[in-house]
Amino acid sequence: MRIDIPDNKKQIYETLISIRWGDMDSYRHINNTVYFRYMEQARIEWITSMGFSSIAEKEAMIMVNGFCNFYKQVSFPGTLCVKTFVGAMGNSTIDLINTMELVGVEKHDVPVMCAAGGATMLWVDLEKNKSMPWPESILKVLR
């Protein structure tokens, strides 16, 4: 089953992630679970780039759903350009989409889309263990 990546999305962040030798599995390509770590890393970098802590305190953004579509096998060495986009927004949820392109293996290489995925994120009051509306400071950035 493949999940459709929405056309209606706004790019909010971009980062480069170096593929590590240990990211590969016994088939000598990036293990499928590692793509979720790449998306997580991009989310954490985006959150901290806005001045928010990546350490949960009284309120936090938590992942309630995640998916990844795999398009091309990738191996070490290499660099992935991970782009983060905002998709649908609700009162307390937001869909974050990530695309991952292999870049810079050779100077003349064109980036190659190797995976795309995303996560539905929920803003939560951790003390009450309940969802709550997005803080205005985050909504400013997302809009």
Could you please describe the fold and organization of this structure?
With 143 residues, the protein is an alpha+beta fold. The chain has one domain (10-138): Roll (Thiol Ester Dehydrase, Chain A), CATH 3.10.129.10. The protein is 17% helix and 41% strand. It contains two helices and six strands. Strands 1, 2, 3, 4, 5 and 6 form a six-stranded antiparallel β-sheet that branches. A hairpin with a 4-residue loop joins β5 and β6 (130-131). The longest helix has 18 residues, at 32-49. The mean pLDDT is 89.
Task: State the shape.
Answer: elongated
Name the CATH superfamily classification.
Hotdog Thioesterase
CATH class identity: Alpha Beta
Task: Give the helix tally.
Answer: 2
Keywords:
alpha+beta, elongated, 2 helices, 6 strands, about 140 residues, Thiol Ester Dehydrase, Chain A, six-stranded antiparallel sheet
Can you summarize this structure?
The chain is of the alpha+beta class and 143 residues long.
Annotate the secondary structure layout.
Blueprint: E1 10-18, H1 32-49, E2 59-70, E3 79-89, E4 93-103, E5 112-125, E6 130-131, H2 136-142
Antiparallel strand pairs: 1-3, 2-5, 3-4, 4-5, 5-6
